[in-house]
Amino acid sequence: MDLADLSEQQKIIQHLEREGLKNIIFTNCVKDENVKQIVPMVTALVGSSYRYHRGENAEYCIMVIGVPNVGKSSLINSLRRQHLRKGKATRVGGEPGITRAVMSKIQVCERPPMFLLDTPGVLAPRIGSVETGLKLALCGTVLDHLVGEETLADYLLYTLNRHQLLGYVQHYGLDGACDDVVSVLKRVAVRLGKMQKVKVLTGTGDVNVIQPNYTAAARDFLRTFRSGLLGPVMLDRDMLHTPPADP
Ligand SMILES: Nc1nc2c(ncn2[C@@H]2O[C@H](COP(=O)(O)OP(=O)(O)OP(=O)(O)O)[C@@H](O)[C@H]2O)c(=O)[nH]1
Ligand SMILES: [Mg+2]
């Protein structure tokens, strides 16, 4: 919830409910915000489910699932901090594929005794559209170099400009908003001192030229965005304003 623009939170909830999702909690697993709401909600849901006859076994064992790099492992660690005052039990990292296998169950609560299974992130085998794919990639669900850092930076710049989120102008000391990714990355690279030597093959011999390192600049742009320094963003904002498709 700390990185997302939640100014239209009710619309987001309505949209998710139309897709069949219920019992939504917005959390920040780094600062443990709203995490305490989870155990009571899960306990009530399991308790009211007809599928469980838990007369003998009072333990809850629940699987945490989701796309890669969304914070599944962070959620488990945060629950442990909140309910057990215990440290990290499962590895967290800023790129997809940190959790590689279903882990053994991790206790997150004493009363009720609740255990969670951490799982590797999964993506649907087919992504609906190129734009959906770019949004997922911008959130770090696939390794950046597989899509291309510059391609991602281009989509990020397009999104920020469309949403009128012009924090990047000040952050990188640019003259103004710009929709040309090459000139933005050039300015970013120069500002950060990210230059590289490139060999140019000419008819009269090789010449070394110094030019901006566009990939390094793109990486910095993505990292800055993902750390929230360019402001909260709701990548699916347009979806909230389009009427639901006919069933
Ligand atoms: N700002 C912010 N960052 C978060 C939050 N939750 C997790 N992160 C960060 O997101 C990154 C991914 O977190 P993980 O917990 O490893 O994500 P995961 O879903 O387990 O990832 P995989 O195991 O690779 O599928 C890490 O850099 C976390 O610090 C959050 O609520 N807010
Ligand atoms: Mg994980």
UniProtKB/TrEMBL annotation:
InterPro entries: GTP-bd, GTP-bd_ortho_bundle_sf, P-loop_NTPase. It comes from the Eukaryota. The keyword GTP-binding applies. GO terms for molecular function: GTP binding; GTPase activity. One of its GO terms (biological process) is mitochondrial translation. Residues 62-124 form the G domain. This is Mitochondrial GTPase 1.
